């Protein structure tokens, strides 16, 4: 029997359509067309994403001391990872992955730099005037940041000097490094006076280029402002503001 | 001739499904291996987590925000948001309202120098920071416009994007009245805040809430009477952004200034 040409051609077309239908019906994955299926897959992918911030409660398990210190201080509302950054990897393997610790000075002003848009009452400083050369953590414990104690004794009466010095580059020098104060000075201050440095050599013992003292910046005491006393040019309680 | 065609058709009929079967087999073999690799390091979902028992929202106590941008930083780290400015899932705006009632709004951290500059306080009436993010609207305009059903609201109240379906047409980005979506430059798909869905279902807080130093952000479950969010809503006068659009946002602000849009 001979099938007419038209019928054959038509049947090819029909076949292709049927094949197309079957293909879409069986081969297109359900995850492409069935809403229930592709939604579930998408939620699953979302949930499988990596957690990088471990969350505050887990740090406490191993760092009880830090937490004890922090929870009663001014930083009690800060999460560990606000400062230490994402630490989930550290919690899984503490000795292999160390969290970052923000020791540099530029970190704390992110929150504490004066900004008129900040709520009033939030403790703010002007970093350029607040002891500009030392990292904040030399004076403030990051886990319990109280303003550091200035030696109460002398500050009780010399509050202005004590405050000035506390923010200066000489902050870490005790008053008694430079003044020998007899105990009587505190009772009858005007009659019993402490000593004051008298010569250039006094300052030179830390600042001369030959001095063994390590941290003080050095000058050549023999030539540096040689005809004057050091404090005629440098205010000793706020040096650097010469 | 006839025989040829029949052979060809036969071949086709066998060949195409065979390809499908082989592909499916390959997938079936590869998938569990990949999944196993992933799950080893991932934290498990809270056991028995049932999305229908939760409905999430966020509260923002404007008076507490210090504009430190830690939330933005944490969000970028947690969610692989590109480091460059202009790509945000959450961001903080600084409002300066001048005495002549003009309002200057700038996004914190966009212009480094600008942030340092102290505003002229003489003619400033008031100034404050407003954290912003996707409002996870109960009636989300972005979902309505998606032509390929790639974005939707979960039962627990998060608006998510299916990266595999998204074709990057940007309709949703246009439709969002809050500017909360952006086109991810690498995947070329729409990206947005998920309320850190991958954390929340594991009992963790969203990254931005975790790191906020002043608890200006409050995350919680609207279906739980004891949640911090519900308490926050009870104790404060609450506003939402652009209420007139009837999007029913689920980010609730307390102490919101009338000038904020």
Number of extended strands of chain A:
0
Q: Identify the biggest protein-protein contact and residues per side.
A: A-B, 40 and 57 residues
Helical stretch tally of chain B:
8
Uncertain ranges of chain A = none
Strand content of chain A: under 5%
First and last CA, distance of chain B:
74 Å
Helix share, percent of chain A: 25-40%
CA-atom Rg of chain B in angstroms: 24 Å
**Fraction in helix of chain B:** 25-40%
Major sheet of chain B: size, sense and barrel closure? 4 strands, mixed
Overall geometry of chain B:
globular
Overall number of strands of chain B: 11
Summarize the structure.
The complex is a heterodimer of chains A (242) and B (261). Chain A is an all-alpha fold and 242 residues long. Chain A has helices at residues 5-26, 30-33, 35-47, 56-62, 64-71, 80-84, 88-92, 109-112, 152-155, 159-166, 175-178, 200-207, 230-233.
Chain-wise SSE layout:
The complex is a heterodimer of chains A (242) and B (261).
Chain A: H1 5-26, H2 30-33, H3 35-47, H4 56-62, H5 64-71, H6 80-84, H7 88-92, H8 109-112, H9 152-155, H10 159-166, H11 175-178, H12 200-207, H13 230-233
Helix pairs in contact in A: 4-5
Chain B: H1 2-41, E1 56-61, H2 70-79, E2 90-98, E3 103-107, H3 112-116, E4 124-133, H4 141-145, E5 151-153, E6 159-161, H5 171-175, E7 182-183, E8 190-191, H6 197-200, H7 207-211, E9 217-221, H8 228-235, E10 238-239, E11 251-254
Parallel strand pairs in B: 1-11
Antiparallel strand pairs in B: 1-9, 2-3, 2-4, 5-6, 7-8, 10-11
What does this structure look like?
The complex is a heterodimer of chains A (242) and B (261). Chain A has 242 residues and is mainly alpha-helical. Among the domains of chain A are: 1-35; 174-232, no CATH class. Chain A has helices at residues 5-26, 30-33, 35-47, 56-62, 64-71, 80-84, 88-92, 109-112, 152-155, 159-166, 175-178, 200-207, 230-233. Chain A is elongated, with a radius of gyration of 36 Å. By secondary structure, chain B is of the alpha+beta class. Chain B is built from eight helices and eleven strands. The interface between A and B is large, with 40 and 57 residues.
């Amino acid at each position: 029997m001979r099938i007419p040409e038209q019928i054959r051609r038509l049947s090819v077309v029909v076949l292709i359509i049927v094949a197309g239908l079957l293909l879409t019906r069986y081969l297109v994955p359900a995850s492409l067309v069935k809403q229930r299926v592709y939604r579930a897959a998408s939620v699953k992918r979302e949930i499988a994403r990596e957690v990088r911030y471990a969350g505050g409660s887990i740090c406490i398990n191993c760092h009880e001391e830090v937490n004890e210190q922090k929870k009663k201080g001014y930083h009690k509302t800060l999460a560990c990872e606000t400062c230490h950054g994402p630490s989930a990897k550290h919690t899984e393997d503490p000795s292999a992955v160390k969290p970052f610790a923000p020791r540099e000075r530029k970190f704390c002003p992110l929150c504490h730099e004066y900004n008129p848009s900040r709520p009033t009452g939030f403790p703010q400083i002007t970093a350029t005037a607040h002891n500009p050369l030392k990292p904040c953590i030399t004076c403030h414990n990051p886990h319990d940041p109280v303003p550091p104690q200035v030696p109460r004794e002398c500050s009780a009466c010399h509050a202005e000097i004590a405050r000035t010095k506390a923010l200066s580059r000489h902050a870490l020098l005790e008053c008694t490094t430079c003044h020998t104060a007899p105990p009587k000075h505190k009772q009858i201050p005007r009659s019993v006076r402490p000593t004051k440095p008298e010569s250039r050599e006094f300052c030179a013992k830390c600042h001369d280029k030959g001095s063994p003292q390590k941290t003080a910046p050095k000058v050549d005491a023999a030539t540096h402002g040689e005809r004057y006393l050091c404090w005629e040019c440098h205010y000793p309680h706020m040096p650097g503001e010469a | 001739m006839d025989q040829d065609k029949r052979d060809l058709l036969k071949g086709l009929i066998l060949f195409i499904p065979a390809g499908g079967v082989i592909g499916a087999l390959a997938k079936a073999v590869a998938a569990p291996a990949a999944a196993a690799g992933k799950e080893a390091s991932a934290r498990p979902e809270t056991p028995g987590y049932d999305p229908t028992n939760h409905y999430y929202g966020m509260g923002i106590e404007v008076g507490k925000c210090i504009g430190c941008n830690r939330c933005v930083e944490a969000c970028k780290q947690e969610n692989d948001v590109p480091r460059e400015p202009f790509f945000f899932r959450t961001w903080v705006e600084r409002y300066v309202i001048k005495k002549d009632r003009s309002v200057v709004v700038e996004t914190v951290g966009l212009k480094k120098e600008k942030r340092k500059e102290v505003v002229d306080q003489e003619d400033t009436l008031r100034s404050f920071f407003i954290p912003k993010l996707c409002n996870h609207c109960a009636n989300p305009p972005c979902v309505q416009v998606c032509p390929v059903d790639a974005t939707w609201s979960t039962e627990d109240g998060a608006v998510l994007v299916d990266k595999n379906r998204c074709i990057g047409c940007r309709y949703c980005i246009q439709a969002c009245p809050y500017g909360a979506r952006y086109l991810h430059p690498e995947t070329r798909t729409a990206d947005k805040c998920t309320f850190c869905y991958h954390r929340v279902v594991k009992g963790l807080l969203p990254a931005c809430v975790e790191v906020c130093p002043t608890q200006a952000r409050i995350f919680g479950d609207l279906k739980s009477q004891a949640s911090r969010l519900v308490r926050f809503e009870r104790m404060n006068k609450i506003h939402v952004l652009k209420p007139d659009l009837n999007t029913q946002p689920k980010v609730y602000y307390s102490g919101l200034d009338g000038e904020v849009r």
